[in-house]
Amino acid sequence: MAITASMVKELREMTGAGMMDCKKALNETNGNMDEAVEYLRKNGQAKADKKAGRIAAEGLVKAVVKDDKVAAIVEVNSETDFVAKNADFQAYVEEVANQAVATEAADMDAFLSEAWLVDNTKTVKDALTEKIAVIGENLSIRRFEKVVTDGCVVPYIHGGGRIGVLVEAETDVINDEIKACLKNVAMQVAAMSPKYVSRDEVSAEYLEHEKEILLAQAKTENPEKPDNIIEKMIIGRLNKELKEICLLDQAYVQDGDLSVAKYVEKVAKENGANVTVKKFVRFETGEGLEKKNEDFAAEVAAQMGN
């Protein structure tokens, strides 16, 4: 299969690996993108947690919470950063977030089809179309998530709307100290981008897959070491990875002597509460999207000698 510059570009964005490494991986896997990602990971040339695409689209993330029990988070994209900073656009994103708090929609199609709360003679999609006409740029309500809890849910917005987080906890005490604690946990989620709340959420399939990747890496790096030593290395590396991807296992960024779990436990004890972090939602503006860049493919082609 002929390997094109656009294929190399796509793989490079998915993995962060070097251009020639990407070209070699595609050649070795006959252009199969998924297998090429695996090839690069096994050879230590790509990170397991690399986003599948550059974070580049503009827009805002907004979160709204009602009475500590009901919350929603939305991402609305724009074409330029200039529009994302526009007061009219920011007010519109807040209206979308308020719509999401009230919605019963389970998916984006249903959400776009429902009556717009600001003016229920229109649908959410109608209001979006009108806003596009006013602002003069293509806009998109990309995603939303609603959280309803018997415990407590708190929001955190970072960088003026670049990253937004909701954290839900089961708790028998809701006061300022508990909410501050959960906001600190939300800040942790924003900064460290965990994949799971705890190890309990990590599937056996994921663990087996990671072991396979780590085994290939270890054997490539240490071909002379016996299998029993390699096995110990894999266990150590897997535990290290789990401490990075599981929120409660992470070192708490404001006090490295504590894990996030120990920090929550400490605050709960000080307030005579039982607190369990149940869920988080993290949206980053443009995650997995890419700005239009017509020159990049040409640059790749030139460097590949095509």
What does this structure look like?
The strands form 2 sheets. This protein has a 3-stranded antiparallel beta sheet. The radius of gyration is 23 Å and the shape is flat. By secondary structure, it is of the alpha+beta class. It is built from 12 helices and 6 strands. The two termini are about 15 Å apart. Helix 2 crosses helix 3 (about 35-40) and helix 8 runs antiparallel to helix 11 (about 260-270).
| SS field, number of helical segments | 12
Give a count of the beta strands, DSSP E runs of length 2 or more. 6
Strand content: 15-25%
Cα Rg: 23 Å
Taking the sheet with the most strands, its summary is: 3 strands, antiparallel
- Secondary structure class reads alpha+beta
**Which spans of ≥5 residues are poorly predicted at pLDDT below 50?**
47-56
**In percent, how helical is the residue content?**
40-55%
- Distance, first to last CA: 15 Å
Order of helices and strands: HHHEEHHHHEEEHHHHEH
How are the strands of the biggest sheet laid out side by side? Answer: 1-2-3
Shape: flat
The average pLDDT score comes to 88
